[in-house]
Amino acid sequence: MKSTLLTLIALALLALMGASAQELTIVEQDWELAKTKAKAENKLVLIDFYTTWCGPCKKFTKAVAEDAAFSQGIAQQFVLLKYDAEKDLPHGLTRKYYVRSYPTYITVTPDGQTLAKQYGRFQPTEASKANFLNFLAEAGTRYNNQQYLTGHNNRFDLEYPEFYTKLIDRVQRPKRSTVAAWWEDNGMPTNEVGFAVLVYLGGTDAVNNYFIEHRDEFIRLYGAPDANKVVRAIASDRFDKSVAEQSEAGFQAAKTFAMENMNPKKEAESMVHYFQGQYYLAGKQWEAYGQWLASDVEAGQLSAMEINYHCWNLVEKCEDIALLEKAVVWMQEVVNAAPEYAYIDTYAWLLYKAGQKEAARRAIVEAIAVGKADGENVSESENLLALINENQP
């Protein structure tokens, strides 16, 4: 008999609910139907915000379909509403809950009272499933204790600014000046609409400072996940500004803010480290950037895709031969492990910039062949090959 952490938690949840295993009711996209079903079954609603291109979203769907214990654990207290966040009309749930990352899970009562929210990259592991069932159990406890996130009212006809609606509907992203003017006219984020704009688009310095001063109240009203998201956005904006201005004092101030305000601290440390690299890159401090990047590559902390991203930055911006030669070695290891078109192409460009023209020619010929076989657009690779051939003696 298989005994796992998930099974134990699922069984404990079943026992706690005093109910036998039952089939999970799943509703596609229809908020009104989900509420009706939940009322009829005397349950809550779990909204699964997904997109068709989101990998972790698909893993959650597969887990629900294939793991009976997991599905039944959800079914004890919830009706599942699967909601494509990019098809928000006519129900407006993406707008209401300012969802911008996927998957996002929100638990609500049938009359629209919000209980809890969770962001995350769902993985089909026993630990991930157990954590998810624990999230649902905590939402059930909040419901029993009438502990709602009262910043959200149960109205779904709120008046949002036009720029926000257009952004949610994938029509147009507003200019920063438009958002700043709206804040100037509307003051602090003291209501649900203001908080939605703050989470999705950020605030002015005055708005951000107001949020930090009243953060505990925002956590009570909207929950820690969204409050932490705002803190991360403020920290990121401050780092971005210091990088653009190449201000060491600004960078240190942003670092202090992140370490003192972000939660968990590991996220703060990760953000500081990332922007330290961006600071070196923007300032073309190639020796420092090379050391920063080498420490991550050699420690095995970067995926092949991340190494490719950083090396392509060097292709576009770096003229330091010593660093380019190091990057050639890193990308060669990536290509050896995963000979994909994008990686071979980056490798070829690095070789070319490092002055290794014949090796670059061989690599770009291989990249073109792999790319064509995979149906990729290889025009830029062909441009590099033409450039190499033109410069042949």
What would your notes on this structure say?
This protein is α/β, with parallel strands linked by helices. The protein has three domains: 5-144, Glutaredoxin; 162-281, no CATH class; 300-390, Alpha Horseshoe (Serine Threonine Protein Phosphatase 5, Tetratricopeptide repeat). The chain is built from 20 helices and five strands. The protein has helices at residues 5-17, 31-41, 55-66, 68-75, 93-96, 126-144, 162-168, 176-186, 192-201, 205-213, 215-222, 224-245, 248-261, 265-282, 286-298, 304-317, 321-337, 341-353, 357-373, 379-390; strands at 26-28, 44-50, 78-84, 104-108, 114-119. Strands 1-3-2-4-5 form a five-stranded mixed sheet, with helices on both faces. Helix 11 (215-222) crosses helix 12, helix 12 runs parallel beside helix 14 and helix 18 (341-353) runs antiparallel to helix 19 (357-373). The radius of gyration is 25 Å and the shape is globular. The relative contact order is 0.06. Residues 1-11 and 13-19 have low confidence and may be disordered.
The low-pLDDT segments are 1-11, 13-19
N-to-C SSE string, H for helix and E for strand: HEHEHHEHEEHHHHHHHHHHHHHHH
% residues in beta strands: 5-15%
CATH superfamily of the largest domain: Glutaredoxin
CATH class of the largest domain: Alpha Beta
Number of domains as seen in the coordinates: 3
Q: Under the CATH scheme, which architecture of the largest domain would be assigned?
A: 3-Layer(aba) Sandwich
Provide mean pLDDT, rounded: 92
Our count of helices gives 20
